[in-house]
Amino acid sequence: MKNLIFTIVATSLALHSAQAADATANDAPVSAPPSVEASGEGIPAPAAIEIKNKSAFAIPENGRSPFWPIGWKPTPKQAGATGPATEVAGPEVPPSAFLVSSIVMDPRARFAIINGKVMNEGQVFGLQMGSSTYQITVKAIEDGRVVLVRGRDQEIVAPLRRR
């Protein structure tokens, strides 16, 4: 029983001293932090942030974007008369740039081996000449020749090379 009374007295003394400390803290004048607006509403004003070192990222003119997948290259662009850039302007691609070594004309599909790669009608591939890459489309595979298209304007007829 003595332990219970001692615990109650100790708790009440601790509670009374905590209330007394709060009362003296409330009597002291409260100073507003320096970021409080003068309107008296007590809303803190946004603190001004000064940026010391602003980061920047610039890709060189002939550089590769680090956000592209490895090995991926964008298609070259050209400013056309119809509006946005569409294809690369430049010299025409000569038919001698293509080596057509074989043509297969099956009733279900047509295939040609162009520059050592099997191509079918409608397939698009890149031709690298010097530092430029041209986008070429296989328009038609005919008997003895392949019709290729570069962009919208240039049509190239590459003959089958026979030995």
From TrEMBL:
Keywords: Signal. Residues 1-20 form the signal peptide. It comes from the Bacteria. This is Type II secretion system protein GspC N-terminal domain-containing protein.
